[in-house]
Amino acid sequence: MARLLADRPADTLTIGDMARQLGHSHGAVRNAALTLVRRGEADQSGTGQPEFRANAKTAAAAQTAVISPPGTHAPRAQAATAHTTIPAAATTRQTGPIRRAGGQLYHPRELADLPDVEALNRLRDADVPVLLYGPPGTGKTSLVEAAFPDLLTVAGDGDTTVGDLIGEYTQADGGGYVFQYGPLVTAMTEGRALLIDDATLISPKVLAALYPAMDGRRQIQVKAHKGETIKAEPGFYVVAGHNPGVHGAVLTEALSSRFSVQIQIGTDYDLALALKIDARVVRVARHLSHQVDLGELGWAPQLRELLSYQKTQAVLGTQAALANLVGIAPVEDRDAVAAAVIKTVGVKQIAPLTLGKQLPASAARQPAGGTVSAHRGRSR
To answer: What is the tens place of the pLDDT at every residue in 285-307?
Structure first.
């Protein structure tokens, strides 16, 4: 890896570029590139698709071989067998926080006796598509972003079209029309990971355009653009997200059968406590989550809502943050959420965050610290 970068000092290379030239798996190349960056022996740039470039230390790094654990840099053709024979202890376990492309930290969780990001990378190297399912806000997207720095995302909904996946003609500045490839084509040609978020909100007819890229053919035909055939490069990988409780979400047999591994994602309330979120509110969330499991409620705060509570509390105070927590609950579950907050936190009553009466004009103009003298700016 270091030698490749050192031989091309003026170039910035993506993970897909390097995987094709080195003949190694996408995951192995990514791990090696990030290792060089961590050691200061290469530079990384880019957000959605990271790019790597040689620096002053790269040439020296290329002179000394660093022996990686057996199998971690196996060619993709061997990956399907390699991932079943490598013992879990043979690879570097990523247990500490991982910084995602947007700068947020992701805290890995255990999955099949591995850190979840490592498990997903093994599945990617073996070309085993994964469906993540669970309530909104539990960290499905965060996990995928942490595992795959080269990720492209399609945010699915009922209006998603085949053109949103594959591409469509758009008007150029000169007045003509040009074909703009969609994220599916980009992921296939660049050997990148593709997340279909909220996949079960997308029409089954639209999702059908994705299936030929995922099966043994690993290619699609772009009928709208001269019937062009697009073939998937090594590294291309599809992962999908499904929110079972969302209205309109339907997991069809055709979609489910394309994902050999399906992983349930729930909120890690111990992580919420470790992140210093109010322990009383975490207890409320645990209690409500248990009621959801029993079928008594339809909603409970997940990690996303708990993090939002923490931020609101820091800005507006505890009372306002609790009121907002009640207010974001679905109307049919709001009374139960309020009752849980009252019982656990000890407040007398709680209602959704609501605007009060209009403030007097003089009060509205007052600085927060009190009235200010018009003569010398001294507080009275």
So the answer is: 999 999 999 999 999 999 999 99
